[in-house]
Amino acid sequence: xxxxxxxxxxxxxxxxxxxxxxxxxxxxxxxxxxxxxxxxxxxxxxxxxxxxxxxxxxxxxxxxxxxxxxxxxxxxxxxxxxxxxxxxxxxxxxxxxxxxxxxxxxxxxxxxxxxxxxxxxxxxxxxxxxxxxxxxxxxxxxxxxxxxxxxxxxxxxxxxxxxxxxxxxxxxxxxxxxxxxxxxxxxxxxxxxxxxxxxxxxxxxxxxxxxxxxxxxxxxxxxxxxxxxxxxxxxxxxxxxxxxxxxxxxxxxxx
Length: 255
What we know:
Layout: E1 5-11, H1 15-24, E2 33-34, E3 39-45, E4 50-56, H2 72-82, E5 85-93, H3 96-105, E6 114-121, E7 127-137, E8 146-152, H4 155-158, E9 170-179, H5 187-194, E10 198-201, E11 204-210, E12 216-222, H6 224-230, E13 242-250
Parallel strand pairs: 1-4, 5-8, 9-12
Antiparallel strand pairs: 1-5, 2-3, 3-4, 6-7, 7-8, 9-13, 10-11, 11-12
């Protein structure tokens, strides 16, 4: 079954400033939360997926990864040392052990599962414990992009309708776009990662799945030339592959 987009990790150096930008764009954000390994976040929740604005709260607490560990905090710390922007694409996970075995069998990464929990602030100001299991996929030669699945263990305390109402009428992330010097060289890898066929398009390829709610879930990889033709304002850096943008479906374009 094709994997659906769960959330995007958007690295920022000043979380309060980034939150103000997203609020001006018409998004509702969750209260600030902290991870036990030194990063902090605020989320933009939709009905099925979300954006994660991530910052470094306490870099001294970020551990270096051990054997077969993927260091979420360390990867994003090093990313922020170079630039801000999207660092990770996350897919929905329903069976962490199954994802781990699948990634290892398909040559996508053989990392240990990472489990953690934290307190989530509810709309009424109370708190509830939420838990997650993460399974990573990454290539050692890619410094600008990593991937994982996220299985939630208390979704009833995580997803809240009060945080999912946005004045810009946003419904969810439907596409992530990446740039690569030679997209065709990565098509098979992304097909194995997403579980969807890599369809050849002008300047690259796209792996597309449809969610039960009807929203599309697509990963598109383009050459720099094709990307600039689609989004002339996009910033293309001297690294490959890397995330360059994402698309959000709205209910009312005028809003």
